[in-house]
Every structure is written in C-alpha cells, then in structure tokens.
Amino acid sequence: MRVLVTGFEPFGNSKLNPSGEIIKAISADNIVSAILPVTFGGSAQALIKLIKLHKPDAVLCLGQAEGRHAMTPERVAVNIDDARIPDNAGNMPTDQLVVAGGPDAYFSTLPVKEMVSAMKAAGVPAAVSLSAGTFVCNHLFYSLQHHLHGSTVRSGFMHVPLMDQQRVEFAGLPTMPLAQMVAGVMASIKTL
Ligand code: PCA
C-alpha cells in the first residue's frame, strides 16, 4: 500500500510550518511525501499532479492550525474560499467557491476516529475536528476530495498544532514537540 503524505511550506510571516517539518522527518518504503505551496489553486494543482504521478492507495494532507492542542483529522471539507490573510502568492479570495458547481461539502474518506484512537494509544493528543477553516488547507482538502470522489483511493486532511520551536513567535498558543507529531502521523498511517 502506497501512501502520499503532504505538508505545507511556511506562510504568513512564519519561517516554520510543522506540517512541512513532519514531511522532512518521515520516511518509509510505502510513503511518498511532498511539501506544497501555500497558495489557492497552486497547492491543489501540485497535489493532483502528485496523485497522477504516484497513483497512491491513500492520501493524507497535513497543515498547521495555530491554537490547536492536538492532532486533528478533519471530518469535512467545504466549498468555500474565504481568506483572512493573503496566501503566499498574495491572493485573498473572499466568499468564493473552491469548485464552481461542486457540492457544498465532502466528507473525509479516511478512518478519522480510528486515526484518533491510534494516535492516543501512541501517547499523542488527538481529536476529530469538524472544520478545516476556509483558507488554503480547506481549499486543498476540498480539491482533493473532489478529485478522488468515486475512486477507491481514500483521502483526507489532518491539522497539526504549532511546534515547540514556534513558542516565541506565537506566544501563549499551545505547541507540541515535532517528534510527537511525527509519531502521530506514523500511527495514523498505520491505521490506513
Ligand atoms: N495551514 C493553513 C494553510 C497552510 C497551513 O499549514 C490553513 O490552515 O489553511
């Protein structure tokens, strides 16, 4: 079984993105990984190219969600782009559709509850999340589910907390050690 796992480059004014750092830290024979640009459109195009190239059996995309305490597999992707800050190309869409004519939402086809249980069993704080927001992460997640809808490839998205090295930059927000996040991702992949 081949799993495609992606993370994101840093965005906003940050120099780090834990999802990208996780990608740099994981490697296994059955894992193909990539770091995607934090841009509407560009992120999804790059991901779909990777899916066509590697033909994975499952796809797990990762992104940073500042403020979260736990690893959070997302349950639902919504058909809205509504940015509070510009993406890395300067785009800031408001109230636009991710896919014109697409359904309002798609559910994750990953076993989100089993992933949470597996992460907790590995000692990693984890919880199911009901919203991936309306920025680039949700855009990527929705585009992924739209692309793979009707196929047998299982796919979804997981937000991760800030990492310890971001504690000064995001004073007061919860962080998690990178090694714990990597353990969580590996435990999640095992459930697939
Ligand atoms: N988090 C952002 C985009 C990139 C990332 O890591 C988000 O939650 O939309």
Structure description:
The chain is of the alpha/beta class. It has a single domain (3-190), classed as 3-Layer(aba) Sandwich (Aminopeptidase). Helices cover 30% and strands 20% of the residues. Helix 1 (18-25) links the parallel strand 1 (3-8) and strand 2 (31-36). The radius of gyration is 15 Å and the shape is globular. The protein starts with a strand and ends with a helix. The relative contact order is 0.24. The model has no long low-confidence stretch (mean pLDDT 97). Pyroglutamic acid binds at residues 8, 11, 17, 19, 38, 63-65, 133, 135-137.
Mean pLDDT: 97
Number of helices: 5
Series of secondary-structure elements, N-terminal to C-terminal: EHEHEEEEHHEEEH
Helix/strand class: alpha/beta
How is the largest sheet built, in terms of strand order?
Answer: 2-1-3-7-4
CATH superfamily: Peptidase C15, pyroglutamyl peptidase I-like
Helix content: 25-40%
Oligomer: single chain
The CATH architecture would be: 3-Layer(aba) Sandwich
Cofactors and ligands:
pyroglutamic acid
Radius of gyration based on Cα positions: 15 Å
